[in-house]
Specification:
The protein is an alpha+beta fold and 183 residues long. The chain has one domain. The chain is built from 5 helices and 7 strands. α3 crosses α4. It is globular and about 65 Å long. The chain starts with a strand and ends with a helix. InterPro entries: DUF6505.
C-alpha cells in the first residue's frame, strides 16, 4: 500500500434517502461533486436539490449524493478505476465532449478528493457549500468521536433481585450498587 487514501460514501442512518433525490450507495468512491452545480441558478435551487448543493458528496457509481464519506486506503489500481468511472460518468451524465477531456477532468477531481483524505483512516468527512461573490465555496469538516463525553446509562435496565432466606424477594434496593453495575 502506498499510503493513498480516497473518500468512500458511508451511511450511518437512512436520512440520505429522505434528504436527496439521488442517493449514493454506501461504499462508493466519492468526490466533492460541486461541478454538478456550475451552470445552475443557485437562487432557483430548492428542496432536495438545494440540500445536495449545500451538503452532498458525489458517489461515482450512482452519481448520487451522500452526506458523509470516510477516509479509506486505496490502491493505485482502485484510483485508476475511479478515474475511469468518473470520466465515463462525465460523458454519460454531463455531456463531456470526448473521453480525453473527461479523463483530464476526472484526474483533477480524484486528485482533489485524495487531498481531502490527509487524515487517519476511518475519519468521517462532510462538506458545507455556499455561494459567495467569487463563486461556490466549499468547507470540509472532519467528524471525530469525542473521547471526553460521559457515557450515559440506558434509561431502563432489567435488574434481578436475589431472594432472601425466607424465599421472598429482597425488599431493600441498593441504588448505588445498581448504578455501578455487576461486579
Amino acid at each position: 500500500m502506498t499510503g493513498l487514501k480516497l473518500p468512500r460514501t458511508i451511511r450511518l442512518d437512512p436520512s440520505d434517502e429522505f434528504v436527496f433525490d439521488e442517493t449514493a450507495a454506501p461504499g462508493e468512491w466519492a468526490i466533492s461533486g460541486a461541478f454538478r452545480f456550475w451552470d445552475r441558478d443557485m437562487q432557483a435551487l430548492a428542496g432536495k436539490e438545494r440540500q445536495a448543493f449545500r451538503s452532498g458528496l458525489l458517489g461515482l457509481s450512482s452519481f448520487g449524493w451522500s452526506t458523509l464519506v470516510v477516509v479509506t486506503p486505496a490502491s493505485q489500481a482502485e484510483r485508476e478505476a475511479a478515474v475511469a468511472l468518473l470520466a465515463r460518468q462525465l460523458v454519460v451524465h454531463l455531456g463531456a465532449p470526448d473521453e480525453a477531456t473527461a479523463w483530464a477532468a476526472a484526474e483533477e477531481e480524484i486528485a482533489f478528493a485524495a487531498s481531502l483524505c490527509d487524515h487517519p483512516e476511518n475519519t468521517l468527512l462532510a462538506v458545507q457549500r455556499s455561494v459567495e461573490e467569487d463563486g461556490i465555496r466549499e468547507r470540509f469538516r472532519t467528524l471525530k468521536k469525542r473521547e471526553d463525553l460521559v457515557q450515559h446509562s440506558r434509561a431502563f435496565d432489567i435488574v434481578t433481585l436475589e431472594d432472601n432466606d425466607d424465599g421472598d424477594a429482597a425488599e431493600a434496593v441498593d441504588l448505588h450498587a445498581l448504578m455501578r453495575g455487576p461486579t
